[in-house]
């Protein structure tokens, strides 16, 4: 059997992937297995264990013991024999660790593992499991040494060694550097430490594990803000003393998510600053995760909380559109009007819009000057005309009809349906630049191609959804029943969950009767932000989501930008020369 490589990791703590005990279980009802190992003193490499001692307790009552010597398969250093009293002769008839592990793993099942300086003992056990092909059950782990550092002051104990703590708590068994004696002493130390936790408002095993970790004084002082919150999907809002929203977040379990802000796993500096200013947490319960995500977006947009970084200013989105009048040009604008018929967006920043505009300028002869041109009066041409980069409509070197065909029509077609003509032109330019070994220039054009494709794919995808007056969809709920969503013009108008075992139609009817009235409008995002519509799209496109009803068909152009998704991925991630074969 191949030996698995062991890497020392942090303790399991409250990782949601950890099996076993519910972190909300009260300490008095929790089953603990207190373990101690004696080893040959080396690094955890899958061997080296000479003795295992474990005691199972719950509510102060001992439930069982496990103790055995272990043949490490290697000589014992003399200083280990002097320290523990374990000799080579004592270990020769003992079973090897691979024979001991099954009984030990069964003994610790469904319990919280406790050890003094737990990373050391747990490290040896995990390495042994990895070496011999046993699955480590990943139990929750409580370290009495770490807990003592939080509970006891230097005035009470000079250090946190097991012998020192055993003397302080007057344990019935004194540690002797033998596994079972040390485990029994650790049991009494654990009970003594638990007795001190009540004054710190630590009542559950999850609280105890987190209390033992390196949380900040602010987190410890403000952890009461997480009390009493519902364990349901929704939005949580940290509010200041004057009731200002400081931070808005979302979770499928509000209580668990908010508690995580007061654990050692939360290390973001801005969140620490936010917790210092927070005075209460408000919970907004939602039917399911989609409604929670949408409400979060709307609350962030409405209040712009100072500690949220994303989704704060949807009004800063910009558009790239063709101007009116003779010889149209591209213009970056904040809003679209009903008279705008050729446009692209929305873009998250002006820089992104400028990059896409540069792509169109590379592909088609749209003028780049900002003059308002006249069909009668000639305006002097700029340097771009002399360089052959502009057809010079300002000097009437091109007729309006020719300009529309060569410059305007490709933009209209690319944004509304098929960007093939623009894509071909940009790929051809990349080929020329790459052939001339102008790789940096080719990379610039490649980034512009990516900007054009990214924007056209996004807009056409949004327009396909927002053009539907009403859409009802359902997704199986985790606890049975169906998560239901009613979408109107790309905006979430209503949400709910039908009970398990009940036909969802009555629930959907009730949602429709109380849903928000949403009027359509101009553009690909007439009734909601682009981010909201994209969140809805992601929910609708999951394999388990079912479309229940639609007021009209949901479709995208046959020759639309969506067929260039693979090219877009290569343009964003690959070198320019890989794009030359993508022309179709």
Span between termini: 51 Å
What CATH calls the topology of the largest domain is Nucleotidyltransferase, domain 5
Mean pLDDT: 90
* Spatial strand arrangement across the major sheet: 3-2-1-4-5
Return the CATH class of the largest domain: Alpha Beta
**Count of individual domains:** 4
Pfam families: GIY-YIG (PF01541), RNase_T (PF00929)
GO biological process, one term: DNA replication
Domain GIY-YIG: 231-309
GO molecular function, one term: DNA-directed DNA polymerase activity
Structural notes for this entry:
The protein has 584 residues and is of the alpha+beta class. The strands form four sheets. The chain has a five-stranded mixed beta sheet, with helices on both faces. The protein has a four-stranded antiparallel beta sheet with strand order 14-13-12-15, with helices on both faces. The model is unreliable at 1-17 (pLDDT under 50). It starts with 30 loop residues before the first strand and ends in an 11-residue tail after the last helix. It has four domains: 27-213, Ribonuclease H-like superfamily/Ribonuclease H (Nucleotidyltransferase, domain 5), CATH 3.30.420; 217-312, GIY-YIG endonuclease (3-Layer(aba) Sandwich); 316-464, no CATH class; 469-553, no CATH class. The longest helix is centred in the C-terminal third of the chain and has 28 residues, at 439-466. The protein contains 20 helices and 15 strands. It holds the Pfam family GIY-YIG. GO terms for molecular function: DNA binding; DNA-directed DNA polymerase activity; exonuclease activity. Residues 231-309 form the GIY-YIG domain.
């Amino acid at each position: 059997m191949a030996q698995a490589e062991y890497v020392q990791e942090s303790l399991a703590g409250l990782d949601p992937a950890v099996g076993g005990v519910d972190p909300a279980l009260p300490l008095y009802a929790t089953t603990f297995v207190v373990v101690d190992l004696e080893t040959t003193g080396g690094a955890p490499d899958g061997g080296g264990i000479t003795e295992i001692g474990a005691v199972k307790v719950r509510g102060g009552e001992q439930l069982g013991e496990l103790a055995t010597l272990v043949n490490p398969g290697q000589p014992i250093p003399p200083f280990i024999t002097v320290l523990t009293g374990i000799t080579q002769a004592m270990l020769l008839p003992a079973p090897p660790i691979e024979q001991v592990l099954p009984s030990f793993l069964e003994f610790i099942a469904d319990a919280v593992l406790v050890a003094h300086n737990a990373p050391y003992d747990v490290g040896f056990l995990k390495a042994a499991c990895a070496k011999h092909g046993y699955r480590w059950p990943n139990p929750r782990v409580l370290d009495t040494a770490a807990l003592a550092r939080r509970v006891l002051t230097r005035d009470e104990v000079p250090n946190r060694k097991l012998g020192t703590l055993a003397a302080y708590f007057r344990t019935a068994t004194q540690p002797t550097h033998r596994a079972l004696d040390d485990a029994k002493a650790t049991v009494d130390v654990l009970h003594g430490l638990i007795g001190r936790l009540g004054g710190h408002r630590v009542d559950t095993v999850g609280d105890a594990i987190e209390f033992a970790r390196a949380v900040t004084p602010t987190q410890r002082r403000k952890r009461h803000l997480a009390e009493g919150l519902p364990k349901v999907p929704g939005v949580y809002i940290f509010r200041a003393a004057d009731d200002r929203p400081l931070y808005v977040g979302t979770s499928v379990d509000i209580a668990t998510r908010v508690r995580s802000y007061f654990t050692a796993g939360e290390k973001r500096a801005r969140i620490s600053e936010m917790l210092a200013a927070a005075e209460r947490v408000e919970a907004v319960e939602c039917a399911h995760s989609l409604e929670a995500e949408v409400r979060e977006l709307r609350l962030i947009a409405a209040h712009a909380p100072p500690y949220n970084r994303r989704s704060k200013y949807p009004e800063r989105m910009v558009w790239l559109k063709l101007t009116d009048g003779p010889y149209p040009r591209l213009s970056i604008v904040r809003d679209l009007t009903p008279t705008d018929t050729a446009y692209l967006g929305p873009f998250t920043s002006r820089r992104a819009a400028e990059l896409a505009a540069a792509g169109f300028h590379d592909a088609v002869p749209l003028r780049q000057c900002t003059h308002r041109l006249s069909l009668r009066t000639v305006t002097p041409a700029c340097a771009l005309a002399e360089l052959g980069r502009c057809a010079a409509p300002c000097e009437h070197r091109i007729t309006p009809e020719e300009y529309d065909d060569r410059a305007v029509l490709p933009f209209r077609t690319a944004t509304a349906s098929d960007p093939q003509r623009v894509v071909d032109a940009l790929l051809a330019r990349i080929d020329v630049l790459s052939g001339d070994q102008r790789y940096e220039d080719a990379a610039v054009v490649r980034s512009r191609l990516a900007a054009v494709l990214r924007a056209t794919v996004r807009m056409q995808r949004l327009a396909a959804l927002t053009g539907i007056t009403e859409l009802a969809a359902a997704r199986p709920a985790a606890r049975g029943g169906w998560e239901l969503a009613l979408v109107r013009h790309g905006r979430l108008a209503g949400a709910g969950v039908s009970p398990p075992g009940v036909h969802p139609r009555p629930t959907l009817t009730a949602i429709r009767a109380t849903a928000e009235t949403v009027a359509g409008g101009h553009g690909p995002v007439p009734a909601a932000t682009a981010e909201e519509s994209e969140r809805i799209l992601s929910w609708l496109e999951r394999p388990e989501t079912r479309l229940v009803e639609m007021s009209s068909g949901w479709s995208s152009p046959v020759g639309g930008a969506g067929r260039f998704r693979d090219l877009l991925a290569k343009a964003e991630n690959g070198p320019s020369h890989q794009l030359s074969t993508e022309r179709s």
